[in-house]
Structure formats: structure tokens, C-alpha cells
């Protein structure tokens, strides 16, 4: 092909190329912004910690409503825990209820709570677990640990967060 027999200009094809290039640029910029925004806001890269924060929020909502069986189910990530009680013989629901009502880390019943921030913990890009900081009754900070593998909660968390 020489300059004299070059293909005809295709306006539609060129517009499509331009649109695809602009769309890709916008998509990459949006991905970068969301990645950094999630991290800076304290919710993990790309807001990946939000499911764990939601689970901890459900747990404290159950404690606030004194629904200890539901809180136990959330804590162990097992909604059918009553069908296999032998699995929880080392930490039964009665002990859980005692720990979170009489001897709770909060120092009284849960009246209000707010999930503040979370940080990824452990190995790998998204870690093996998530530390979730919760302010309870407008004064006490509690750090729950969410295990990614099993979806269970643990208290106390292995580390405390500074924020």
C-alpha cells in the first residue's frame, strides 16, 4: 500500500476508537480513585472490608436487642447452630450469653454502637482477617476480629487500631 492508494477515512471507526480510549481512561481513573478512597476512608482497598463491618454491625445490633441466640449465630457464622450443639461444647451459647451480658467487654448493655473503621490483618493482599473497631455506648472502643476463611468473629482482636 502506498500513500496514493491509502484506505478511505472511516469516521465511525475513528469515533469508536476515541470513545473506547476515553472510556478506558475514565475506567482506570475511577478504579484508582475507588481503591484509594476505600483505603483512606478506613474500609480496605476497594471497600473490601465492608462485608466484615456489616457482619460486626449485625452482631452488635443483636446484642443491643438482647437476641443472644442470633448474636451467637453471627459470632460463629452458623445460623443453624442449634441443630449441632456438640460442635459448640467448648464455648456453648450459655457461656457466650454470660460473657456478653454479665462480663462483657463493654461494661454494661449495648445501648448504642457505631462501626468506626477496619483494617486488614494477616498475610496476603486482602489478609487473613479484618480488625473492626466499634464504639459502643458513645465511649468504649471494642476491637472485633473477623476471620475471612470461616466468616467467624473473635474477641478480642489480635491488635488494636490507632485512629
Descriptive account of the structure:
By secondary structure, the chain is of the alpha+beta class. It has two domains: about 10-40; about 45-155. Helix content is about 40%, strand content about 15%. It is built from four helices and four strands; from the N terminus they run ααααββββ. It has helices at about 10-40, 50-65, 70-75, 95-100, and strands at about 115-120, 130-135, 140-145, 155. Strands 1-2-3-4 form a four-stranded antiparallel β-sheet. Helix 2 packs antiparallel against helix 3 (about 70-75). About 20% of the residues are buried. The model has no long low-confidence stretch (mean pLDDT about 85).
Features:
163 residues; four-stranded antiparallel sheet
- Sketch the topology as an H/E string, one letter per element: HHHHEEEE
Sheet of most strands: 4 strands, antiparallel
Span from first to last CA? 66 Å
Q: Numbering strands along the chain, what is their spatial order in the largest sheet? A: 1-2-3-4
Number of helices: 4
Unreliable residue runs: none
As a whole number of angstroms, the C-alpha radius of gyration is 25 Å
Number of strand segments? 4
The whole-number mean of residue pLDDT values reads 86
Which percent band covers the strand fraction?
15-25%
Structural class: alpha+beta
The total tally of domains equals: 2
Helix content: 25-40%
Q: Name the overall outline.
A: elongated
